[in-house]
Design brief:
The chain is mainly alpha-helical and 184 residues long. The chain has two domains: 13-66; 74-182, Single Sheet (Rubrerythrin, domain 2), CATH 2.20.28. It contains four helices and three strands; from the N terminus they run H-H-H-H-E-E-E. A three-stranded antiparallel sheet has the order 2-1-3. Strand 1 and strand 2 (153-155) form a beta hairpin.
């Protein structure tokens, strides 16, 4: 039995969504605490905050699955992520250049590392897609919508998603997506 969407449309949905957001926020907070601890010389507690952040991320993913936050089209989601992550490398590199021009070389250096990691995420998704070529073929009769900010591609009718649907990568609302392809 899948837990995907178990709470969607039930009395539990709002609580699960609140928990999902709290855990996602907790992930950011714990990683920020790890960063601040490192900068302030508390190296002995950095790993504790990172462990807490990793656990909070797992919790957020659990709640997201319970409420069906992301499209259930598993392979479509992976294909969309692959394209967006591969394109994200150039976007983050451009941000690093702007940060460097603003005078913060330390942050720019880290953003350049993040850019490489985003590109690597694209490579990892491509490797997964290559490992399962039969399972990840797009259906013939559907539309493809693209997020104008990050390039994530949504396969299917985005209008079938609830009004609260947002891009799984950058959070843009479904109204921002453009239909770029229709397969008949």
């Amino acid at each position: 039995m899948s837990i995907y969407g178990f709470a969607k449309g039930t009395d539990l949905e709002q609580m699960m969504k609140a928990m999902m957001q709290a855990e996602a926020t907790g992930t950011m907070m714990y990683y920020a605490l790890a960063r601040m601890a490192k900068e302030q010389g508390y190296d002995d507690i950095v790993d504790t905050f990172i462990e807490a952040a990793n656990q909070e991320a797992v919790h957020a993913g659990f709640y997201a699955t319970l409420v069906g936050k992301y499209p259930q089209n598993f392979w479509g989601l992976v294909r969309g992520l692959q394209k967006a992550e591969a394109g994200g490398e150039a976007q983050i590199k451009a941000l690093a250049d702007k940060v460097r021009a603003a005078g913060c070389d330390e942050a720019a250096d880290e953003l350049e590392l993040f850019a490489k990691q985003e590109g690597h995420h694209g490579v990892m998704m491509a490797e997964i897609l290559a490992k399962y070529p039969q399972e990840n073929q797009p259906a013939k009769a559907k539309k493809v919508y693209v997020c104008p900010v990050c390039g994530y591609e949504y396969e299917g009718d985005i209008n079938a998603e609830g009004d609260d649907y947002v891009c799984p990568i950058c959070g843009q609302p479904k109204s921002a997506f453009d239909c770029v392809k229709s397969f008949v």
